[in-house]
Amino acid sequence: MSATDIDPSAPILEVRNLVKEFPIKSKGVVRRTVGSVQAVSGVDFAIRPGHTLGLVGESGCGKTTTSRAILHLQPANSGQVLFQGRDVTRMSRTELRRMRRDMQIVFQDPYASLNPRITVSEIIAEPLKIHGLYEPDGRAQVADLMARVGLNPEHGNRYPHEFSGGQRQRIGIARALALKPKVLVLDEPVSALDVSIQAGVINLLEDLQDELGLAYLFVAHDLSVVRHIADEVAVMYLGKIVEIAQTTELFEHSQHPYTKALISAIPIPDPRRERERERILVEGDVPSPADPPSGCRFRTRCPLRPTLPEGDQARCSGEEPTLIGRGRGDAHRVACHFAGAND
Amino acid sequence: MSEYSRLSTESEVLLAVDNLTVDFPTADGVVKAVRGVSYNLRAGEVLGIVGESGSGKSVSSMAVMGLLPKSAQIRGSISFRGEELLGRTEKEFMQLRGSKIAMIFQDPMTSLNPVYKIGFQLAEAVLAHHDIGREAARKRALELLEIVGIPFPERRIDQYPHEFSGGMRQRVVIAIAMANNPDVIIADEPTTALDVTVQAQVLEALRSAQRETGAAMVLITHDLGVVAGQADRVLVMYAGKPVEIGGVDEIYYEPRMPYTLGLLGSLPRLDADRAERLTPIQGSPPSLLSLPPGCPFVPRCPLAKPTCDEQEPELVPTGEPGHYAACHFSASLIGKRADEVFAVTAADAALPASYGAEIEGVTGQVTAIPEQPKAEQSE
Known about the structure:
The complex is a heterodimer. Chain A is of the alpha/beta class.
């Protein structure tokens, strides 16, 4: 969990220039493809073993699509997903199946992601059986997994509906852990839970990472949660990463106007601070990804742009900013022509 | 009227809820959704009602608006400017709704009618309570859209709800709520379905709505961050009952009910040390079908003693003006931090003992799970 120690080991998961498009179909019977939406347009990042990358952004920014493309649940259109140096996007079915032992996903909705017709033991045993790893002592394996995620192993023959939301999410985590993966993709794992329950699941994820050395891709819209759990954070906007940095660096020295606005928009449960805080208000809504703005995708809502001289404003709409290292080393990368201009 | 709702008398009491209870008879028994809620809402103030899912915060507000189904058994008293609302007919309620008391619902997708233009729906709200011409109503509609910060209101007014984004729709709903300058606005999770940057916009719109109309507001939410920035007073609900009420500062800085303290401790917050562990509250809220006697928080409470099982605590003054807490041991929480009271743990408590009994076919003893032996944390 400690964010500061430099791990020399190579990344376990690396994503390079990942692109995922969805076709737009015409209305009517024929449903021809009339265009496409680029949900993810060129995303790069890397995760080292035992570390957590937080992927944040608002709805429709492509964070969930990214996580699914990584697992090849929705194959990417282009780009590479390197798991231990091997490209997931080019794997055969057999290779994919082998890869999925090492890379598992926990879904957002603990109500929809568990089969209501089978018992919890069967749910957790399922991945073991599929991969032929359900040994004669399988029951003990399952009981061990349940205990590991903080559930009472005696409840194994109950059905999902008999559990609360937080407990169901723990079942989902136990199922993901069954194959002893190295990477867990967590797609909004706590956003459906009440706060008092959410905290327990966050603590559990932290403990599991420490015990098992797992790497997490933690996808979420809640920046407070991501700040708490992630070592590094990538902020997405309309299919692109606009800023990526070590967590403390990102929250204390954010440079992209969108990141700044996001952080300032989060309410803090502290009345005195809330009263004194000045918010950076972002105007309008996220534009449609089917027709993203030219140049910088954030320029239509950017609070920084109106303060710039006209020539600079033209650059925002004419030239797309690339994600480049700024200031404090290459680890902090920002996609903005004028990042930090008003600091 | 109970003592704690009578305490301060700075401005006129608009809405007085006294010992409100709501029961829903179901096939499995009576669900006691609200079990004695009392509060006073004064002119111009914002009262935040917080609680987790199923704590009764929405149901108690629906009762105020007269929007509960007929099967609901409502007792107690709800008075608006001294007039009793309970027992009114639907017709009498309709005169009040939208004109004196307005409501903003969580889901802006379903609170607007998809087949009518925005302008029509705004004008409809105005015309329902005022005898003015169509033109004047449209003018008022434009004005309202401007107040809540809809860009290009002249063009937007003739569009349909599907042409608006979620945040814009919620702003339209706020505009409708303020159309008749209500005295009280009840906002039920107004920003829950929205992204943070849009949430900030909508909260801004809510603030301007309140400024324009001078209305008092009941803000119902599960988000302690939103309440901190908006509310003057806070009411914390648990299992259908208020467990703590007080000024926003007292509730956040000196909570006197373990549940409130636990909620605050389980929040990851932007201003906290990142290495600090969260302190979850063990277990889950009780079923409102079969509440055991005593404090409903007992199964999750680290301070629980035998007295707590026997007697349900009432709201009692904590010593600070206007601050009341329902805990037998609230004095022992003075100056305590959440991690001093709640265990820093990742384990889920076993299902509450009463849980298995509700489920058909589940037999056998439900035992508490022993804490998993864990390697010492270096942090």
